[in-house]
Amino acid sequence: MTTILVADDHPLFREALRGAVIRVIPDARLHEAENADGLYAMADAHPDADLLLLDLNMPGAQGFSALVHLRGLHPQLPVVMVSAREEPAVIRRALDHGAMGFIPKSSNAEALGTALRRVLDGDRWVPDIAASAPRTGPDEQEVAARVRELTPQQFRVLQMLGSGKLNKQIGYELGVSEATIKAHMSAILRKLGASNRTQAVLMAGKLSVDPDKVVPPDDTDD
């Protein structure tokens, strides 16, 4: 039986994706997540799923970071990005970071069905507008490779740091001590090749949809 994972924070779009999947594969088993933590738990629970449909802007993850992290944890899981951001450069970056395809949220039911069939058959599905986009730069590819080396907990800490949280806040939310968070931060800096929190956030920010809008954290919390 075909297993499809759907990760999107909008219930109406999850419903649309669910309908498209059922039209193509009536007996498919579907599992859904509405945020980053739910996404990672779902992927861990179903590592042999046939396909993951992943929203580009999941709460708890910045830009392409969730895709990069999942490709490191579950390289065998085919991922198709879905997004309202349809610029050629965004589509190209998704593909360069390991997506099997990219489905614009403006796609109608027929286009969704066609894309699903193609990807489940092992092909890529790429909108024509992406053909002219340049490949992702080596600096971003290098950051992606380093991010893939982070453990799940280190990745969570980095994402929370990127959202502006302090060590104490991160520790509280994760249920661990501030000392544990500092230990994670030391490992994150080492793996990213960063010298401080600000540099780490700016490096990880290269995986954001709009890297120039990344706001560095207060570096006094080291």
From TrEMBL:
It comes from the Bacteria. Gene3D superfamilies: 3.40.50.2300. The modification 4-aspartylphosphate is found at residue 55. Residues 143-208 form the HTH luxR-type domain. InterPro entries: CheY-like_superfamily, EvgA-like, NreC/VraR/RcsB-like_REC, Sig_transdc_resp-reg_C-effctor, Sig_transdc_resp-reg_receiver, Tscrpt_reg_LuxR_C. CDD domains: LuxR_C_like, REC_NarL-like. Keywords: DNA-binding, Phosphoprotein. It holds the Pfam family Response_reg. Residues 3-120 form the Response regulatory domain. This is Response regulator transcription factor.
